[in-house]
């Protein structure tokens, strides 16, 4: 009986090793030379986006990836010079419907990862992403 338990444990650990867990950690940077002299840190995993900011008073904001509906890459002229970008995440989160990962390196790679990982997270949770098409107006037209 114990041998079966060990085999299951080994199979579970092999499965966890096989599943590639990506994690991106970036700091908000000044546009000038792209130096990370700010106290904002972004962490993107396959489950959640976390934004930590502040030095004395800190604030942490989390958003599950399955709530991310759309991702946009914004790059201004100064950001392009220093190879930075801003990733805008439009979410179904009530507290922060728009998350901005501002002035980060590897912005395009992180944007693509969030897009893929959010779709995979919705599949795992079996959730449906719907759009609000202002159905309230339909009642007024029918009346």
Describe this structure in words.
The chain is an alpha+beta fold. It has one domain (21-124): Pleckstrin-homology domain (PH domain)/Phosphotyrosine-binding domain (PTB) (PH-domain like). 34% of the residues lie in helices and 29% in strands. It is built from four helices and seven strands; from the N terminus they run αβββββαββαα. The protein has helices at 2-18, 77-81, 107-125, 136-142, and strands spanning 24-27, 40-44, 48-53, 59-64, 68-74, 85-91, 98-104. A four-stranded antiparallel β-sheet has the order 1-2-3-4, with helices on one face. Strands 5-6-7 form a three-stranded antiparallel β-sheet, covered by helices on one side. The radius of gyration is 20 Å and the shape is globular.
Strand order of the largest sheet: 1-2-3-4
CA-based gyration radius = 20 Å
Number of helices: 4
Please state the overall shape, judged from the principal axes of the Cα atoms: globular
Briefly note the CATH topology name: PH-domain like
From N to C, what is the helix and strand string?
Answer: HEEEEEHEEHH
Number of strands: 7
Quote the distance from N terminus to C terminus.
70 Å
Unreliable spans: 1-18
Quick gist of this model?
The protein has helices spanning 2-18, 77-81, 107-125, 136-142, and strands at residues 24-27, 40-44, 48-53, 59-64, 68-74, 85-91, 98-104. The chain is of the alpha+beta class and 143 residues long.
């Amino acid at each position: 009986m114990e041998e079966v338990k060990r085999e299951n444990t080994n199979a579970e650990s092999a499965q966890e090793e096989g599943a590639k867990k990506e994690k991106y950690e970036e700091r908000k940077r000044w546009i000038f030379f792209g130096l990370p002299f700010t106290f904002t840190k972004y962490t993107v995993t396959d489950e959640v986006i976390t934004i930590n900011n502040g030095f004395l008073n800190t604030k942490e904001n989390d958003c599950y990836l399955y709530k991310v509906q759309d991702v946009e890459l914004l790059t201004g002229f100064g950001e392009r010079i220093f190879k930075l970008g801003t990733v805008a995440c439009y979410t179904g989160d009530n507290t922060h419907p728009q998350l901005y990962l501002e002035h980060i390196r590897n912005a395009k790679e992180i944007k693509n990862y969030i897009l893929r990982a959010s779709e995979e997270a919705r599949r795992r949770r079996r959730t449906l992403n719907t759009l609000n098409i202002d159905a309230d107006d339909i009642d007024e037209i029918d009346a």
